[in-house]
User: Fold these one by one.
Assistant:
Number 1:
Amino acid sequence: MQVKHLLLIAILAMTAACSSTKEVVDENLSEVELYQQAQTDLNNHSYTSATAKLKALESRYPFGRYADQAQLELIYANYKNAEPEAAKSAAERFIRLHPQHPNVDYAYYLKGLTSFDQDVGLLARFLPLDMTKRDPGAARDSYNEFAQLTSRYPNSRYAPDAKQRMIYLRNLLASYEIHVADYYLTRQAYVAAANRGRYVVENFQETPSVGDGLAVMTEAYQRLHLDALAATSLETLKLNYPDHPSLKDGQFVPQVAEADNRSWLSKYTLGLIESRPPLPPGETRANQDIIKQYQDAKDSIPSDLKPRDENGDVIEEQGPQALGNNEDRSWFSYMTFGVFD
């Protein structure tokens, strides 16, 4: 079924591309005739023809009685014709030219509505796409544009609808942040995951994703062995969201299984052959590799070139693992930057 939908989309796109010819508007039409024909095209859903006539009306009669109305309806025609960039550009132009117009709130509303529907294209209508996992750029723009409308014109007829859409967009943006946090958990980027979870808790209050943000924080802090922060996040989660899926009989259950960092040889031999031992706390593979490279280079030095003391014994030098251990250095060593050590 999805293949049929994709074929239908391709056919419609090709048909639209082949039929997108520029319409020529009669130069002898008066202002009233242009406006009436544009209205007829809008009523018949012929938005391409309506756009051409509205542009002609605005350019031929820039100071006519229908000029302002033509600019407003041009925003609508572009929006309905699935041309979001043209619609937003027309809306911004109208707002810039007519900031005190009695219907300027309509331009703000259509601008936000264009961004709201920008991601809902043909694919989203025919395929089951999760909007919370897509790039939230258009959703964030739409939220900000609706916020401008509701703050500047709280009594506008479009404000109630804009507020409802803002609630939906806020929930969508919060869900997107949780998806990103879950991805960071699977990639063992626990600091980034904790930051995303805290961002949701701090900036998206009263959304369903706040409980998920607390769960992400708890899990990330547990992985980082930050017990105090993990306990605080868990207590907040239990107090405010006792029925959260991550809580089983009052106990926290991580949603992402702890990653297995063993080598492929160790996994296939069920641990009978360990290629590299597990890391001790605070140790990294990069640090171990540096120490090994230093030791290999040191062992490759011929014995007759190694430094010796007065008795002829080889002087053992400190390796890179001793760097940063300055507890035994004197004040004279600090003042001379170790030159006379």
Number 2:
Amino acid sequence: MSLEEKLNQAKGSVKEGFGKLTGDKKTEAEGTAEKVASKAKEVAEDAKEAVEGAIKGVKNIFHKDDN
């Protein structure tokens, strides 16, 4: 989970809220899109880290069997 993505999500939420507050549908939609895109990127990064961890675990199992 990257701090950058958390900040981008927060920025998108603020922009979305500002759009709602002012009645600016375009700004609201942009904020929503930024928030969702950052969340998707965060989820993808987390999934990549999980797969890398699983690969390391499998490699460790096979290396233990070699000894």
Number 3:
Amino acid sequence: MIFLNKVVKAYVDTEEQANKPIWKRMFLPKSKKNVIKELSFAVNQGEIVGYIGENGAGKSTTIKMILGIIPSDSGDISVFRKNPFTNRKENAQRIGVLFGQKSHLWWDLPLIDSFKFLQKIYSKNTKEDDEWIEWLMKELEVVDYANEPVRELSLGQRMRGEFICAMLHSPELVILDEPTIGLDVKTKQKIMEIILKVNQSKGTTFLITSHDFLEIEKVSHKIILLNDGKNAYQGSVCNYKEEYIYLRKVVLHDTVDADISIEGLKLFTQNVSSLEYYFDVREIAEEDVLRQIKKSRQDLQIEVSVLTFSEIMIIKGKEMKNESYNDLRLLSIQGE
């Protein structure tokens, strides 16, 4: 459904331009930097794909090219086996989009009026279309406030409405850009539940960008990690976790100043009343780590666990930035 092959996209480097003398800015070609660097990946029909990367990695630029808002500088992009830039209007009928920072809703109108207006735009006025919207409203629990002005709704209520707007024309492909940012736990859970239900019942394809790795892990068939404009990983969450299952986390409770110096043990994070370390069981055995910690501080309460998906990503991002591992095959992204 989505195919990118060695795609490159560059923008004017405004910072470098600002540092140039005026005559260079006027007469010489503008300096550019590649935001997307020979990016290649595929999204198949019926998949739920998590598209993950830190701010500035190139996620939004990728989405704009997929939607046909901007063209690529080189490489091949196809959506529904068509060039998305030259077939933007045609593809738009088959795509639903939700940007976390942009709205489909009319601020002063009741929520239901926004739904009806978008129905007219997409020519979705049949009985089946009405039943589809009613189902979405019921599932997302917006019926009770559907007649209230959008300006009086909470962020969570508005985002539920935004999600319905992206889904009301029964798109084959839905692109959600940070759909759960700033939302409460209940609203996040509701949106993720609907994604799974729609995917299973209609075979709808979802491409979701997010920093909330725990949510991505729950719903995605596979993940694509983007770093510095490049595809750093593409595969299932399960395979990713299995590949790095050798990492362990050690939590030292009731301390913030434990002087632990053990070869192979690295600091992960410092909390109010605990310190968290991690280590690689291929370098040092868990028993050796525990023995050396207890030898150094017998009074500490120690907890050892397997790292979560998001913790693995954070750690791998740190390691690559510090260049502490030269043989890593995967670059993960540190989330917010």
